[in-house]
Design a protein that fits this description.
This protein is α+β, with helices and mostly antiparallel strands. It folds into 2 domains: 2-90, Phosphorylase Kinase, domain 1; 95-286, Aminoglycoside 3'-phosphotransferase, Chain: A, domain 2, CATH 3.90.1200.10. It has helices at residues 50-62, 97-100, 106-123, 135-152, 161-170, 219-225, 227-238, 246-265, 270-286, and strands spanning 14-20, 28-34, 39-46, 73-79, 84-90, 95-96, 180-182, 191-193, 199-201, 208-210. Strands 1-2-3-5-4 form a 5-stranded antiparallel β-sheet, covered by helices on one side. The protein is globular, with a radius of gyration of 20 Å. It starts with 13 loop residues before the first strand and ends in a 20-residue tail after the last helix.
């Protein structure tokens, strides 16, 4: 396997190449350590994706100029006799946030959530390409695709029709939304607790462009572990001044994402399907079958310590 990396610049200085098998990505991932003990993360993917990814990785490089704790893109290009692309990232020391978050006092959980919101806001300061399809057109296509996949997958969740009703009621809110760079999978599974007990963000594998508030569509994973963290993320992102339409749109984005998650889980087996079905039921409870727009777990900044 090591020979496949020979055409990556400076790979001759790599002392350790250790495969990483965690995560859901189709990419191959490796922990790299150089002769000088400098650690990196290497991601290898199909070369066919290079042109599609180029604009995203150009935007990702802009994060290198921001003083925020995220994986920084060091180098990228073609490797393995042009069969693959590679991306070499800085390595961040830490433990996956979902494994540690519940061990912290309530206020610390909230404060870590605030940190994550501030980081996300910085990510969204990076603009999308000028030729980007309008959010209205793009997201309406996504809505239709996910609804079709859900209806045809053969797995239903009790009261999921309430999500469909909500989507139709509020989908007009996606019109005329600005678009920015996206992390693409923003939740505590892609965050680390650093040795200093701060938040760092990793795994930009699903990076794309879109309406910035869509990034809250995976906050469900964070809220299940720590409602305080999830509340802190929202409040930190908006500096405690939540726009009028935000919660309506967040519920829409969560609902659309959840309908798509159930058919997505099918190839991964019965256990993963059950996890997603249970999560759907939990989300329906948070939103009182989508009769409310603010989830039950959300805490306004005046209440986070009560």
């Amino acid at each position: 396997m090591k020979n496949a990396f020979n055409d990556i610049p400076n790979s001759h200085t790599w002392k350790i190449i250790k495969e990483i098998n965690e995560g859901w990505s189709d990419d191959e991932k490796y922990y790299i350590e150089t002769n000088n003990r400098h650690p990196f993360l290497l991601r290898i993917s199909d070369a066919l994706s290079l042109e599609k990814e180029q604009a995203c990785y150009t935007a990702l490089r802009e994060l290198n100029h921001k003083n925020i704790p995220v994986s920084k893109l060091i180098d990228d290009g073609i490797c393995n006799d042009e069969k693959n692309t590679f991306r070499l990232f800085s390595w961040i020391e830490g433990v996956e946030a979902r494994k540690l978050l519940g061990n912290f006092p309530k206020k610390k959980q909230y404060d870590l959530g605030v940190q994550s919101g501030i980081i996300l806001k910085e990510i969204h300061e990076i603009n999308c390409p000028p030729n980007q399809k309008s959010w209205r057109e793009h997201y309406n296509q996504k809505i239709e695709s996910k609804i079709k996949l859900y209806k045809n997958c053969g797995i239903t969740s009790k009261n999921a029709d309430k999500i469909l009703t909500y989507i139709e009621k509020y989908r007009h809110l996606i019109n005329d939304r600005p678009q920015t760079f996206h992390h693409g999978d923003y939740h505590i599974g892609n965050m680390l607790i650093t040795p200093e007990n701060n938040i760092a963000v990793i795994d930009f594998n699903r990076l794309d462009f879109g309406a910035p508030w869509e990034e809250f569509n995976r906050i469900s994973w964070s809220a299940s572990e720590s409602p305080l963290f999830a509340s802190g993320q929202i409040n930190g992102y908006f500096d405690n001044e939540i726009p009028d339409d935000f919660f309506k749109l967040m519920a829409l984005y969560i609902g659309v994402n959840q309908l798509g998650a159930i058919p997505w889980a099918i190839p991964y087996g019965a256990q993963q399907i059950e996890i997603l079905v249970q999560q759907t039921e939990e989300i329906l409870e948070w939103y009182d079958n989508f009769n409310r727009t603010i989830p039950r777990w959300y805490m306004h900044p005046r209440r986070e310590n009560s």
